[in-house]
Amino acid sequence: MVRSQTLDATGVSTSVSRVPLAVTALIDVVAVTVFVLIGRSSHDEGFAILGVLQTLWPFLIGTAAGWSIGYVFSHVRSSDWFRNDFRPDRLVPAGVTIWFCTVVVAMILRYLLHQGVAASFVIVASVVLAVFLLGWRALAGVILRRRAAH
After folding, report:
1. Would you say the C-alpha torsion 28, 32, 38, 44 has a positive or negative sign?
2. Residue 80: which pLDDT band, with cuts at 50, 70 and 90?
3. Residues 6+ apart with CB under 8 A from 94
4. How far apart are CA 27 and CA 19, in angstroms?
5. How does pLDDT run across 104-124, given as a tens digit for each residue?
């Protein structure tokens, strides 16, 4: 966890705990990869590297799209273009944006590439990715708030 100084609405400096950007990105990549590995395992598709990558890349592209949209959005709504308001470790709005884009972009890519997007798969992917991508953010938020209270 990293502490940084920010200014609140009144101009008073406050200390904010956050998960480092690289750690947040790594956790998201690991979460999506674990989702893919569980899915391949449950369908007896094996773990050959090319097969895993073929299944994984649409989801990682979706995750990257979510990060990109979150980053741009955080700067557009910022009063100062160069201020660092991007907080991908937060549940809302960054976590929800990343999760939504991961699912939607991956499903569009899978549809275009004829990889299968049955309704049951979309529902399972949405729920499991929500648990993985939003769950760790919710847990980190609770831990960071408890640390800040002490």
Report:
1. negative
2. low
3. 70, 74, 86, 87, 88
4. 10
5. 999 999 999 999 999 999 999
